[in-house]
Amino acid sequence: MSSWNRSYLEAMSVPVWVSRQEAIANIVTEPAEAEVATKADGQLEQETTLGFVSVVGDMQAKICILVTADQDLQQAKSNFLLLAQAWKQWQDTDLPLTLLQLVEQDHSTENAEPINDLKEKQLLLASSQSLELPHLTVKPAPTLNWQSASDKKAWWQLIQQLV
């Protein structure tokens, strides 16, 4: 009997005979499905352990530049400050961006804030690698570890487009 027929008969309150083998098969598959759901919840927990630390800039800024923990933070901070200084000279205003570092949230990083606090912000990932954050849109950006003048030019053009 098909599952549709069985559902129809059960809806009409007609008793339906079910073989013991089918009942045992259903019992065996239910725990497996629960285990898959538990694993999915565990993956979600791992994704939410990612946080951020403010490096430099105004946290009220609507645009955030993200650097990963494996990048040279001092170099990124230095280059960000150079961009901020050039912007200040050109526009006579503070650079409307902030620099954040992505970190794993654990007991050792007490000042790390949850990544979900960035939902209302435009996020730029200044890294050569890609990164997907749950419920957040992250756009790729040039790295802040400048190797040539073209890297500086790329950032300057990007900032002008964003602001």
Structure in words:
The protein is an alpha/beta fold. The chain folds into 2 domains: 45 residues, no CATH class; 113 residues, Rossmann fold, CATH 3.40.50. The chain is built from 4 helices and 6 strands, in the order ααββαββββα. It has a 6-stranded mixed beta sheet with strand order 4-1-3-2-5-6, with helices on one face. α3 links the parallel β2 and β3. It is elongated, with a radius of gyration of 26 Å. The termini are far apart. About 6% of the residues have low confidence.
Element order: H for helix, E for strand: HHEEHEEEEH
Which structural class fits the helix and strand makeup?
alpha/beta
* CATH fold type of the largest domain: Rossmann fold
Largest sheet: 6 strands, mixed
Mass-distribution shape: elongated
Q: Helicity range of the residues?
A: 40-55%
State the separation between the terminal residues, measured CA to CA: 65 Å
Strand arrangement across the biggest beta sheet: 4-1-3-2-5-6
* CATH architectural category of the largest domain: 3-Layer(aba) Sandwich
What is the top-level CATH class of the largest domain?
Alpha Beta
Number of strand elements = 6
